[in-house]
TrEMBL record:
Residues 232-245 have a biased composition (Gly residues). Transmembrane segments: none annotated. InterPro entries: TPR-like_helical_dom_sf. Residues 152-245 are annotated as: Disordered. Residues 1-24 form the signal peptide. This is Tetratricopeptide repeat protein. It comes from Aporhodopirellula aestuarii.
């Protein structure tokens, strides 16, 4: 087994040496071999063979396998073997590679089976690396803005003075005449506070309180025009036109 491991190691080293002057197809072949070595290291870790997992994963990392998962699983193997400091170092190195790259959710899926305090330590390293990368990106952006002479978001322009500009107040609006104002001035005149005053006065009477119109008499009845005015009258009962027959 030791001889087989050394043969594979020599093969990988030879491929890496050729990759510097080889075409792209050879580089892809070398990447496939390193991925295979990484996969063997992960299988060895899942099987509880932590020393063998460290050997396979170290081989992939030494030959240029830039995948944070190789560092994570090598750190997990070191933690399972009681090498806490080595595990912490691998977690930090893998987190820095992950924060600089674009690996998507492939890392999370690979670590789904890992639980417990060691996983918490690993996640702390990943979060710290992300925050560090974010702060570095902001710092570089501000430096780039400074080189271009453009103020960064939320920053004051370079030629801005510390003095606060004087606020210009708009002119006051001209006075408007009150259309309901009394042209004659003075207080308004209230003739009477009693709204019903004079409402019951007889409109027929004069101001001197004269007598009312006299009651009508019998002779003044407009409907009494005398006997001769009755169209059905004819001088009494003897004038019956049906009499005499």
């Amino acid at each position: 087994m030791k001889l087989r491991f050394n043969l594979i190691l020599n093969l990988v080293v030879g491929l890496v040496a050729i990759a510097a002057t080889a075409p792209a197809t050879t580089v892809q072949a070398q990447s496939a071999i390193l991925s295979e070595i990484y996969g063997r290291g992960v299988h060895a870790y899942n099987a509880g063979r932590y020393d063998k997992a460290s050997e396979w994963l170290s081989m992939a990392i030494t030959n240029g396998f830039q995948d944070p998962r190789a560092y994570y699983f090598r750190g997990l193997a070191a933690a399972a073997s009681g090498r806490a400091q080595e595990a912490k170092t691998d977690f930090q190195q893998g987190a820095e590679i992950e924060a600089r790259g674009a690996f998507g959710d492939i890392v999370g899926r690979s670590l789904a089976r890992i639980q417990g305090p060691t996983r918490i330590e690993l996640e702390d390293a990943r979060e710290a690396a992300r925050l560090k990368a974010l702060a570095l990106g902001v710092s570089r952006s501000q430096a780039r803005y400074g080189e271009l002479g453009v103020p960064a978001a939320g920053a004051a322009p370079n030629n801005a003075t510390a003095a606060t500009p004087r606020k210009v107040m708009p002119p006051a609006a001209p006075p408007v005449d009150d259309p309901f104002a009394d042209d004659m001035g003075g207080d308004p005149v209230v003739e009477s506070n009693d709204m019903l005053e004079g409402a019951m006065d007889n409109s027929i009477l004069g101001d001197d309180g004269g007598a009312a119109t006299p009651e009508p008499t019998e002779s003044s009845n407009p409907f009494d025009s005398g006997p001769s005015d009755d169209p059905f009258g004819g001088g009494g009962a003897m004038d019956d036109p049906f009499g005499g027959f």
